[in-house]
């Protein structure tokens, strides 16, 4: 994370006020900055974070974590996809939040600390809360808006495959919002697939995307059709993530 001069100055002045000399090395200054932003002692008590809050990691990643319902939701600032997380009890009273592939995304300690795990930082990065924000919700959607969203998904998927990929759906007024979201997530999965050799090879087997309703969220390629199954009553957790779709298509 890039340190802001005002923050660094405030920390150095704070050291001086306590009678502590300013750090002699850049590494020491970075340590002071990290302690000031993310907390220096894992055993210190912290005020509980809001149920819906915006966070920033020491890597610079920023995201919203919504824990206002039984299904925690996460959305990174630079990504439109919403990730449904599954909380599990961990050692020492920790809560481990995993995605639908069983991969650890976040770890929360009982003392209030939060750690983010990414492919770039598999060992974890400290996270600080920035403040309360609005819950993550899918807005209701009418038939014309749904058709427009399916057309957008088709355009994005077609660019990834470099040929026409149509998108269809089995939708009702009650399921339109999650159907539209699943179609866009499927298109996003194809974009990610286009960035690797294995993914591009898998794309050659996909001629169409179809979003269906079923008993559980799933994804599979059947006779050239990428079938994404959603369960509307589960909300965002009722559709597979882009990573799960890519895996089902043979790209991971």
Descriptive notes:
By secondary structure, this protein is of the alpha+beta class. It has three domains: 1-37; 46-136, no CATH class; 143-248, no CATH class. It is built from six helices and 13 strands. It has helices at residues 5-17, 26-38, 143-161, 176-193, 197-203, 242-248; strands at 52-57, 62-66, 73-76, 83-84, 86-89, 95-98, 104-108, 114-116, 125-132, 166-169, 208-213, 218-222, 225-230. The strands form two sheets. A nine-stranded antiparallel β-sheet has the order 4-3-2-1-9-8-7-6-5, with no helix packed on it. A four-stranded mixed β-sheet has the order 10-11-13-12. Helix 1 crosses helix 2 (26-38), helix 3 (143-161) packs parallel to helix 4 (176-193) and helix 4 crosses helix 6 (242-248). The protein is globular. Residues 1-37 and 39-44 have low confidence and may be disordered.
**What class do helices, strands and sheet pairing give?**
alpha+beta
SSE ordering: HHEEEEEEEEEHEHHEEEH
Shape: globular
How many domains, as an integer? 3
Distance between the termini: 30 Å
Gyration radius, in Å: 22 Å
Q: Give the biggest beta sheet.
A: 9 strands, antiparallel
Placed side by side, the strands forming the largest sheet appear as 4-3-2-1-9-8-7-6-5
What percent of residues adopt helix (DSSP H or I)? 25-40%
Q: In what range is the share of β-strand residues?
A: 15-25%
Give the rounded overall mean pLDDT.
Answer: 86
**Residue runs with pLDDT of under 50 for 5 or more positions:** 1-37, 39-44
Total number of strands: 13
Describe the protein's topology.
Elements: H1 5-17, H2 26-38, E1 52-57, E2 62-66, E3 73-76, E4 83-84, E5 86-89, E6 95-98, E7 104-108, E8 114-116, E9 125-132, H3 143-161, E10 166-169, H4 176-193, H5 197-203, E11 208-213, E12 218-222, E13 225-230, H6 242-248
């Amino acid at each position: 994370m890039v340190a802001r001069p005002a923050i660094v100055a405030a920390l150095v002045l704070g050291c001086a006020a306590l009678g502590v000399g300013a750090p002699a090395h850049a590494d020491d200054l970075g340590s002071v900055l990290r302690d000031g932003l993310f907390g220096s002692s894992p055993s210190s008590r912290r005020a509980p974070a809001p149920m819906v809050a915006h966070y920033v990691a020491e890597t610079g990643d920023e995201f919203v974590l919504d824990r206002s319902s039984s299904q925690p939701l996460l959305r990174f600032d630079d990504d439109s996809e919403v990730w449904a997380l599954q909380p599990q009890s961990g050692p020492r009273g920790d809560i481990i939040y995993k995605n639908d592939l069983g991969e650890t995304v976040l770890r929360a300690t009982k003392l209030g600390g939060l750690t983010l795990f990414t492919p770039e930082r598999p060992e974890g990065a400290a996270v600080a809360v920035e403040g309360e924000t609005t819950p993550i919700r899918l807005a209701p959607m009418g038939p014309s808006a749904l058709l427009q969203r399916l057309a957008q998904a088709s355009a994005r998927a077609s660019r990834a495959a470099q040929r026409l990929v149509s998108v269809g759906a089995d939708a009702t007024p009650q399921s339109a919002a999650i159907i539209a979201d699943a179609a866009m997530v499927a298109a996003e999965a194809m974009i990610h697939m286009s960035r690797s050799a294995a993914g591009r090879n898998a794309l050659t087997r996909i001629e169409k995307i179809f979003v269906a309703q079923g008993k559980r969220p799933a994804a599979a390629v059947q006779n050239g059709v990428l079938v994404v199954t959603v369960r509307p009553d589960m909300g965002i957790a009722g559709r597979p993530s882009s990573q799960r779709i890519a895996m089902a298509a043979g790209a991971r």
